[in-house]
Protein: Pvc16 N-terminal domain-containing protein
Amino acid sequence: MIHEVDEGLRRLLAESGLEASGVEVVFDAPTRDWSARRNAPTVCAFLYDIREDTARRGSGHEEVHDADGFVVARRTPPRWYELTYLVTAWAGRPQDEHRLLSQVLACLAATDRLPPRMLTGSLADLGLTVALDTAQTGADGPAAADVWSALGGELKASLGVRVRAPLAGATVPVGPPVTEGLLVRSAAGADERRTAVADEGAEAPAGRRLRYRESREAGTEGFAGPRDRPSAPARRRRRGDRQP
Structure:
């Protein structure tokens, strides 16, 4: 899921005109050594914090059906995670970096979600909204100054971008649908049949397999076919009830 969010951000920034102007969008850690090797305008979106949104954690499961309508698997609900990026612009002069960062801000502030056409993989399959917050205050997680200190670089103008994305739940396959009835044997009858078989030397008869007559008439086998609900039993008349 994380790499799919990266791809969605890259497509969003590229569509704003960065790619056409020759600006590269990367997801590297902007360390001192990395910045020294940059020789072209670059926008860096560094992912530095991942946290689960426990308030949105669901329970239970949903059924997965095949083309014929049979249940083939059960899937747990998706879990939601907050991915926080440190977005910076790199160019030869601070004025160029600020101009580039302003273009990035205008692109990200214009939307509060990643457009569906930019989602790939499991994010596209789930069809859920991937929310996007840009330069929000009061966000949890490490401060930008702490991130720069950990990277070993000098403090630089940056944008904090938070993405809330779902992680697909686990899918567990189930057994095939029931197509035959139950096999029923009577314990008392079985003792009598065993005695008769021992006397006559015959082979013991098999148990009786239950099937629905409606299933056979509908041209289906066993329990796989549709069945009508049985009609309600007639109300028993009690003593003392008046005759109509």
Summary: DSSP finds seven helices and ten strands in the chain. Residues 179 and 223 are 5 Å apart (CA to CA). The mean pLDDT is 80. Strands lie at 24-26, 42-52, 62-65, 71-75, 79-90, 131-134, 159-167, 171-173, 183-184, 208-209.
